[in-house]
Design goal:
Layout: E1 7-13, H1 17-31, E2 35-38, H2 62-82, E3 93-97, H3 100-115, E4 121-123, H4 125-131, E5 142-146, H5 154-167, E6 171-173, E7 178-183, E8 189-193, E9 196-205, H6 211-216, E10 225-234, H7 238-245, E11 253-256, E12 261-266, E13 269-274, H8 300-313, E14 322-332, E15 339-342, E16 349-353, H9 358-375, H10 396-408, H11 432-437, E17 440-445, E18 448-454, H12 471-476, H13 508-519
Parallel strand pairs: 1-2, 1-9, 2-6, 3-11, 9-16
Antiparallel strand pairs: 3-5, 4-5, 7-8, 8-9, 10-13, 10-14, 11-12, 12-13, 15-16, 17-18
Length: about 525
């Protein structure tokens, strides 16, 4: 292993697939000889090694959708470029719907998908059966199908990215733990490791489960905390082995969104991955610095409803034995989307953290960070993964509640303008109780509760999310927002200023006028 140099343009911290992708894309931009990656143990020894390797293109976020699309395209080209297999299998992805609301969600998603150039097809239950003969279609309304979706081998992918980066001059130091990060008097970063120090212009934190510990080194409270995710690997099934012997194509990845699980082939058997309620956050205060290739004790009881649902949908799954249950940590954020971009309040410190679907996002996340650092701006809209979308309200206790909620909501129907309930109310203005008494139904922005609409005429004081006409839209059109025993809502009213944008006024005359209004003089 080469000796740690004293100077670099960029240092990437973290040798999982996300960090190595960041290094690879910087090297592709021509900075190969000036970029270094530091990994405390071996490449992929964190969450990457136990990932199932799925590549879901489905995402309701425009930003994340673009990132996933790029990754899937890159991974298909990587083997030809590096000569190293990445185990990519373009088998497609079949996502089932058991009710009309789910189909409405798919139609809304399809509009975003087509905007960014992702292929998506709508299928009837009969067409589902044709594509997935082992699937029972009772109770299905329909499905969508991604022909370009599939899965990959995460460790092989990471090694291919590392090879591509090294071939362009980038350096990777394994078994090199970061001990401290500090600003120099010249405004550069000095990183202290167990093998010496290195000074650089930019730092990229791609440390996964260690995100909060890495952030604390530079005074950042990074809103990332891992959640335990389990998946089951089964013994081989005769029906799948027979299909293989006949040369039939591999079955698509199957997702029953309403049952909250995915199923795919693996070595003649199945992999089942549920997203259950009650999956706990882990590494609350960060993993042990020496942790690598670590798994938790499995909890089959927590998975039972999803196992039973999968058996009902695919009876063949009930006919095989369990080979192994993986229960490993996956980094999450309060809304489930990653954090990609410049850190707040600190120059030249970049975050590539909180990747709950890190294998799918790694390629695109590394691509955009490299564009941002080298060219000065990203090439796609990155608002959906903006690091500053959370504030100092995202405390340790808040993250536990919200990240567990985000995990359990992976397959929940995502309605327009949905509001999730965990850790609320958190911040309330003095008028909160009065608005509540007047029938307010609240949402939250940056931790603040604000009245989205007012229930009237006997309406229940709660949301009824829909892709069609909801109660909130009906209330907005009601001539009289007055319910029994309640004060009439004024035709004009103000939301608490604390949850909206601030306005800076420089005119002295205007400032004096506002001061008179506020002081009532």
């Amino acid at each position: 292993m080469s000796e740690l140099r004293s100077r670099a343009k960029v240092v990437v911290i973290g040798g999982g697939v996300v960090g190595v992708s960041s290094l690879y894309h910087l090297a592709r931009k021509g900075w190969g000889k000036d970029v270094v990656l530091l990994e405390k143990a071996e490449l992929t020894s964190g969450s990457t090694w136990h990932a199932a390797g799925l590549l879901p293109l489905f995402n309701m976020s425009y930003s994340v959708g673009q990132i996933h699309k790029y990754s899937v395209r890159l991974y298909q080209e990587l083997e030809e470029e590096t000569g190293q297999s990445v185990g990519f299998r373009k088998v497609g992805n079949l996502r089932l719907a058991m009710n009309q609301d789910r189909m409405d969600e798919y139609h809304q998603y399809a509009a975003t998908a087509r905007t960014i150039g992702i292929k998506v097809e709508f299928l009837t239950p009969a067409e589902v059966k044709k594509k997935w003969p082992l699937c029972e279609i009772g109770g299905l309304v329909g499905a969508i199908y991604h022909p370009d979706d599939g899965y990959i081998q995460p460790a092989d992918l990471t090694q291919a990215l590392a090879k591509g980066a090294r071939s362009r001059g980038a350096t990777i130091h394994r078994n090199t733990a970061v001990l401290a990060i500090e600003k120099t008097s010249a405004g550069e970063w000095r990183i202290e490791t167990n093998k010496g120090s290195i000074v650089c212009d930019h730092v990229i934190s791609a440390t996964g489960n260690y995100a909060r510990k890495t952030g604390a080194m530079v005074g950042l409270d990074v809103p990332v905390m891992p959640v335990q995710h389990q998946f089951i690997v089964t013994e081989a099934h005769p029906a799948l082995l027979e299909r293989r012997s006949k040369g039939l194509e591999e079955l698509a990845v199957l997702r029953e969104s309403d049952g909250s699980w995915y199923l795919r082939e693996e070595a003649g058997g199945f992999i089942l991955g549920p997203y259950e309620k009650g999956a706990p956050c882990c590494y609350i205060d960060g993993p042990d610095p020496a942790a690598q290739y670590e798994l938790f004790q499995e909890d089959i009881e927590r998975l039972e409803p999803h196992i039973e649902a999968a058996m009902a949908r695919v009876p063949a799954f009930a006919e095989v034995g369990i080979k192994k249950v993986y229960n490993g940590a996956i980094a999450y954020t309060p809304d489930g989307s990653p954090i990609i971009g410049p850190a707040w309040d600190i120059d030249n410190f970049w975050l590539n953290e909180g990747h709950s679907f890190g294998i799918t996002a790694a390629g695109g996340a590394g691509w955009q960070l490299a564009e941002w650092i080298v060219e000065g701006e990203p090439t796609i809209d990155m608002l959906g993964v903006e690091p500053r979308r959370f504030g100092d309200y995202a405390t340790r206790e808040y993250l536990i509640k919200k990240n567990e909620e985000a995990y359990s909501h992976v397959f929940v129907i995502h309605y327009p303008d949905e509001e999730r309930p965990a850790a609320r109310p958190l911040r309330t203005a003095p008028c909160y109780e009065r608005l509540k008494d007047l029938g307010a139904v609240f949402g939250q922005k940056f931790g603040w509760e604000r009245a989205n609409w007012f229930a009237s005429n006997g309406m229940a004081q709660q949301d009824d999310w829909s892709f069609r006409r909801s109660k909130s839209s009906a209330a907005a059109c009601t001539p009289s927002l007055q319910s029994s025993g309640r004060q009439r809502i004024p035709s004009t009213w103000s939301r608490p200023a604390a949850c909206n944008a601030s306005i800076t006024i420089t005119s002295r005359r205007a400032c004096r006028a506002i001061a008179r209004c506020i002081s009532r003089r």
